[in-house]
Structures are given as C-alpha cells and as structure tokens.
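ENTRY TYPE: paired fold submission
RECORD: A
CONTENT: sequence, then structure tokens
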Amino acid sequence: MAPFGFATGSAPRKPVLLVAESEESIQDTYDAEKWPLAQGALSEVTLRSTGSLRTVRTVAKLRDTDAEALKREVDVMKSLSHPNILELLEVFEDAKSVYLVTEHCTGGTVLRRLTSEHRFEEMQASPLMQQLFRAVRHMHERKLCHRGLQMQGLILATSGELGANTALKVSGFNYACEYDPDQPLREACGPVGYMAPEVIDKEYSNPCDLWSCGVIMFYMLCGYLPFTGSSDKEVMRESHRGAFFFHPKSWGNVSDCAKDLIRALLKRRPVQRYTAVQALHHEWFRGPKKHMDAAALKALGGDAKKIEEHPTDVSTSDLGSLDLELDADPAVEADVPGPLVVHSSARPVLLSETPA
C-alpha cells in the first residue's frame, strides 16, 4: 500500500494534494524559528511580507490519517467567517504534512486560564459565554454542527485579565459537519464529558452543541465538570443519565439567573433545550450581579453598593440543602446502550469494554 497522500508507481511522483489548492511551499511565505515544524503541534510563524504573526497546526500525512475528515475540517473552517471563530487563513501541503495557518492568539485556552484561577466569576464568564453562543448561532445558521465543543477548544485572543473586552475564538473543528434538520446525525463522536445524551444514542442534530455549551458554562462557574466518573465509560453513563448538582459549597455564590440558563441548556430532551438565539436573549447577559438570589443578597446585607463591589462575595450558610437537577424523563435512568465507540479528547473508547 502506498503511503498516505501519495500516488503509486515505480517512479517517484509528487504527493497528491489533499486539501491545499496549490503546491506552494509554506517556507516560501513564512519564517519560523526552526524548520521543519513539529508535527501534531502548534507553531508560531511570521508572514515574511508583513511581519505579522500567525499560528500553524501541522498535521502529519500518515497511513491512518483520515483524509476525508481533514478535508471536511478545512472546508468547514473556510466556510465560516465570524469574529468569535478562529480564522483559517491559508493551507499548505508537502509530502509529509498539511499546514493549517490560522490567526495568532496569545491568551491560551480557556481551560488553561480556568485551571490557574480555579473558577470564573460571573462577570468573567458572561462575556465568554455570550461570544460562544454567537459563534454557535453563526454555525447553526449555516447548517453546521460543531460536535466537539469543549474548554480546550476555546481560545483567548489576548492575554491579560478576563473582562468584557476579552475576545473568544472557537476552534477544534475536526468533528464539525453539515446537518439536515430532517435527517438525524448518527455518528457518536466528541469529547467525553461534553457529549449530549442523544449523541450517545446515535440520533441527534445541532442541539447537541447547546448541551456542550451548558457543560462549558457549568465548568466555568464552579471549576469542575457536571458529569464525572473514574473512567470514560462512567462519565458517559452520567452524561446519558443527565443528572447534575449545584452543590452549595461550590455554587452558593452563583446567581439563580446563571443556574437557570444552565438548566435550560442541560435539558435532556433536545426539543426542550435552549437554542443559541434563546440563550443570547437570556436575562443573565443583562448583568449577572443584578440577578443574585435572596440568600446572596441577605449575606451582603442588602447593600446594593456592596453587591456592586463584591458581586460574588457571599456566604453559603443559609443556602439550604443540595440542589439536584434532574429532568422528569422516564428514560433518564436508562443504561447507556452499547457497544459504542466514543471519541474522547484522549483516545477512542469502546463502551462494551472496560477502558484502560
């Protein structure tokens, strides 16, 4: 069998172009600290003509590389133009690699920032979620489903403190595809922990992206995922069940308004789940500190000025018992069907087996 991306024959031939539109070399256009660029990694390059910085993702052309998936990813990214979606600027290709050149972002991933801060205040999370919903709305208007939304795929355009002017970029389009509202998608794919129940059931459409948004918002505000387990299989079972908790220790300082939006996104039935448009019209985006619950207001003594200065500095002593969110769905306790191949952020897992 010929190596991936090459023509067969006795004499050496030029590599077959998979996604690039010309044979122009990336080294003729960009300068890098070191060539060749590391495969499977992100590299910083400089556009020789202007000195502008760009980021390059280098994809190795191997036998097991999914050429169709790579082409689909490139086509999807080329079709999208939105300030909250990472822009694909150019594509180059040589005998060994495909080079995806994107705009240069310096803020790192949202996950990295969350790891350093443990959790986000509502005033930090609100602008990020608003931009995420705008990106999802843009994709869905074009009948494109992301299917892989996760914290690792959200990029901050610049470094510095999070605030209203922090720009968010959605990336990670390796699972993205077109969809027909009248024809369900049936490929169970996406990062474990972010997949909607209907994706696990292999019958779903674009509402699965809003479930992922709900998981992301939950993660931002408390610092952990709503569906967890000791293995990928257990996480999938919990995601399929759809039960999640607002534990007072972690959620006592979070407004009821924020929790209400999360509930609307993590509806187990897709038809009951918020769309991106509905999410953008939610009152939480009119100012999280205006929607603090009664316990939070009492903890701050009802002082509006104090609330303005310390919007989440509240006590959890009066918040009562554990808040369990569980849809009244007769199938909510159903076991995860199998066997099922799950594409996690680490590796595919067959749910009929015990993951390593």
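RECORD: B
CONTENT: sequence, then structure tokens
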Amino acid sequence: MPGRGEPMFKEQADNTLMLRKSGRPDAMYFALGRLVAAALVHASYGGVALPVVFNDCLLKYIVGQPIAAVDVRRRDPIFFKNRMEALLEPGGIETMCAALLEDRLVFESDSGVPLVAGGNQKQVTPDNVREYVELLSEDYLCGAVRVELSHFLSGFHCVVPKEILNRCGITFADLGMLLSGVSELSAAEWRRSAVERAAGVSEEAARRVAGWFWEVLEGCPQEE
C-alpha cells in the first residue's frame, strides 16, 4: 500500500519533531492531530508526558501564534543571516535584488507562490519589508507541509479547540511543556516558587528541615 509505514514527522536540527510530507492519506494526519490532542488532555490530568519534543513552529500553529523570522534563525541560521537579516539592513532590498538577478522583489515565495493575495504584483519596499520577511519566514518553515499541517490542526482542534487554549492563556511554550514535560528540573527554581509551612513543629525547625531537603535535592543528578 503506497505510503504505508512512512513517518509523518521529521526530526529537525534541534532534535524536535515537525510534520513532513508522506504518501499517507490526509485522514492519517487528521488522526495524528487527534492523538496528540488526546495526549494533551491526558497530561493535563497528571498523565505521563510524551517522550518526544515538538517543533516550536508546530506548537505555534496549534495555539495560533504567528511564525516569525526568529524561528528561521533557530532552524537555519545561515539562511536567516543571508536572506532575512540581509534584507533588513540598509539597502538590503537592492542588494537582494542583485543577488537574485531580479529587477524587484515581490511578495512571492522562492517557488513563485504568492505570499498574500496579489503578491506577484505587490513590490517589497522599505515600508513593508518586515511584513515580507515574516511571511517569507512562515512559508520557508511550513509551506512544504501546508496541506498536512491543515489536516493535523483540524484533528487536534476537533479534540481541543483553539479557543479553549487561548482562553486559558496557553502559549506555544506552555503547550510544549504540557505535552513533553521539561528536559531538566531546576531545584533552585523549584525552591524559589515553593511555599514552606510548618506542620506540627516550630517555624525554626521547619526551616531547618526544608534547608536539608533543598541541599539534598540540589545535589541529586537529573536522572534521579
């Protein structure tokens, strides 16, 4: 069967997972979205987090946060420097036109797909170059899997609507921690946010015992 057994995720340079094209039917991406959403519901009730880390771009799409040039820098710092950063420098548009052998830049992707309605007629200028960079960033990171991403999101939001995520104030970083947990537990940060209360002993004794606890915890390796 065509596409059977093909992975639907691809590991990125930062060891996170992003959707990829495959020969699998669209319904499989829809089902995958539902599965990840079910894992989120399970984790929110104290269940075990998933043993994988999802790419920031995928998490941003789930909660509805925009993709930015900084996301390109994380994934491909060379492309970011030579394309995004270069465009934003004084005279960057003219320099890029010369490098690409173009008379002008318009709101199109590198493959000629309009980034906005009528993008092939909308010229990049100093006034709108930042908008162009943001749109180009989104297309560079997600354009190749736009169809798969659409079905994945439909499946996810069928179980956990985006409106609920937004109402709860969940950011893409929060979502990542809910789904995958944290790679390291900071004892110092835990201590700063902890509230110590005496229970059947004096305040002084409670502080002394708590101090011993934090000393032991801070000396433990992460795997323990």
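NOTES ON RECORD B: The chain has eleven helices and two strands. The longest helix spans residues 26-44.
STATUS: closed
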